[in-house]
Amino acid sequence: EVIKPGNRVETDKLPSDVRDRAMAAVDSFGRRVTIGDVSSRAGLKLNEAEKALQAIAADTGGFLEVSDEGDVLYVFPKDYRTKLVAKSFRMKLEPWLEKSKAAAEYVIRVSFGTSLIVSIVLVYTTIIALLSSRSEEDNRGRRGRSYDSGFTFFLRPSDLFWYWDPYYYRKQQIRADEMNFVESVFSFVFGDGDPNQGIEEERWKLIGQYIASNGGVVTAEELAPYLDVLTTEETEDESYILPVLLRFDGHPEVDDKGNILYRFPSLQRTASSQWGRRKEYVGKRWAEWVGGVENFFKEKKWLFSKTKNSEKAMVIGLGGLNLFGVIILSTMLKNVTVMPGGFISFVSDIFPLLQIYAGSFFAIPLFRWFLLSKTNAEIEKRNRAREQRARALEMPDLSLKQKLLSARDMAQRTFIGSDRIVYSTERDLSDQDYEARDWDRKFREI
């Protein structure tokens, strides 16, 4: 059966993060928003915000309102999220996919830690078996016949996985900073992931909210604490502001004193009435205000591992024990003239894997340590530069203060209330057309 256009779920075409950020912004504004509201609050590009609003409105029965100046507002019903989930198979599936992904990541982490225990057991059991075989050979006077170690190795899977925690996810919600031992093995070798994952989204949210909270007109110096501006030369030409202009559809303007300011018209039109001029917050109180936005963008440093020192010492000790055992076993296997069958033969076959595991157990962390040292130094440099830009705004010199005041003078935040709506897709077009003509007639009589 051919799917008709009207049956398509438009929201499914959106990237999940764009959809979720747009919906969070819609909720924060009480489900009545302009494109600029969503763009500034969610940190989305204007065209991304527009597409997201159109798709969500199409799927949830949202409607449009048009003001007397041509501004378009999107209005959503209270149960729009419920309607969207009921209509979108993708949104029903996403929670299960997220749980499956989290479970798979947990299994990988635990499996790597489990491999350390397995490796130690295999290596030292084989060493004991070889020593036992040599002792038996000596006792039998080396009669030259092939031998079997006579060693029986039996290990139940439950013996290896007794420390797997079946209530891991529940405990993680209660105590997010703790991890069990086998997880700490993975953490020591590979780390715990990027601490700044998704932080670029947060950066654009901060920038969008700052611009909107200042009436859509800002200086380059005000945005520098949120961008990567390291040198004085970069600050002088203000080219670092271009990505912000492109994202939020801004343009430069020159005031009567020759200062270059940046206006963002789309962020000056809002469905929210919570805004007021704040010229008095230029200078000392800037750090206490900035519209509730962080006064500079700060990246997190990478941690080598989140494991506790005691757990880290245990991991290093067991890793060293395993490496030592692999070295000893390697020497012993080279001296074996006739390879026994059974368990020892099995270990001999997989021994290259045991060597790789034992060697990488320390080689990977060593490489990460050097890499993280360099990465954290660069992060610290960027954070320090942004903090310095923020401090310059706390105590601006005379020229910067005049520039900031000029931006506040040019700031404009237009609230689009219900009284300014001249057309809505929720109501019949002929009724609205009649009301518009009646309003125009009364206006002319006045």
UniProtKB/TrEMBL annotation:
Keyword Transmembrane helix: yes
Biological source species: Sarcandra glabra
Record-given protein name: Iron-sulfur cluster biosynthesis family protein
Cited InterPro entries: At5g03900-like
Keywords: Membrane, Transmembrane, Transmembrane helix
Presence of keyword Transmembrane helix: yes
Record-level GO cellular component terms: chloroplast envelope
Transmembrane segments: 106-132, 313-333, 353-372
